[in-house]
Amino acid sequence: MKLVLASQGFTTPEIAKTVSELVNKSLEEINIAIINEAYVGIPGKRDKRWMIQELSYLSNYIGGNIDFINLRACKKEEIQERLAFADMMYIVGGNQLILPKLFKETGFNEILKEFAKEKVVMGTSAGAIVLGKQIEVDEYWKERYGMASQEIKEKTLGLVNFNIIPHYLRQGREKYNKEFFEKVLKDNNFTVYAITDTQAIIQQDGDITFVGGMPEEIFE
Fold first, then answer.
1. How confident is the model at residue 19, as a pLDDT?
2. What was the pLDDT predicted at 134?
3. First and final CA of the chain: distance in angstroms?
4. Torsion on CA atoms 185, 188, 193, 194, rounded to nearest 10
5. 67: which strand partners?
6. Domain ranges of the chain
7. Burial, 29: exposed, middle or buried (Cβ in 10 Å; 0-12, 13-18, 19+)?
8. CA dist., res. 167 & res. 7, Å (int)
9. Which tens digits make up the pLDDT trace of 168-179?
10. How would residue 220 be classed by pLDDT, with cut points 50, 70 and 90?
11. Is 134 exposed, middle or buried (CB count within 10 Å of its CB: 0-12, 13-18, 19+)?
12. Is CATH 3.40.50.880 correct for 2-218?
């Protein structure tokens, strides 16, 4: 299983080179299938320019076919057929509560797991969080999102035994520093990595490596 958990995708040549090595193709040859439905959970008044920017990074590096797969519009057979043509799946971020629910309702959680056995899956922000282990600490959810963990009906996929905090120390989010996360995650029972927009975590067949430097580790 080859998984890439990132904040904002192809933000650096190092991340792009690592993806190329994982796929075992040149960037010019890689075909990508994009899952881009988490943004629908973001309020209409919030600017979505970040998504255009992220996809432009991807387009600048990837020379093969770029496809979008709408999980609600496509039947299971069509999804599988279109994924068969792709070397890599790319799951864009947005509202992190959207994807676990969407994947379960459409059966895509099982399709994704099968795809990941042979090919590369890359998630960014909420698209990376859905691949990780579910954080079930009330203080974390209350402080970050104003809700209780018990309100979350659908869990993340748990394809890795950790999870991430994306966009670590991005401008405007400085209050969400190591001290903050150590406080709200003090009752968590697995490692959470806080990663910047130029970092990524690779899990390949159980081995973890880091791109763009060592992320901040938030322990139990």
1. 98
2. 93
3. 26
4. -10
5. 33
6. 2-218
7. middle
8. 6
9. 999 888 888 999
10. low
11. middle
12. yes
Q: What is the pLDDT of residues 22-41, one digit of tens each?
A: 999 999 999 999 999 888 87
Provide the token pair at 84: 């068969």
Structure tokens at 60: 């600048």
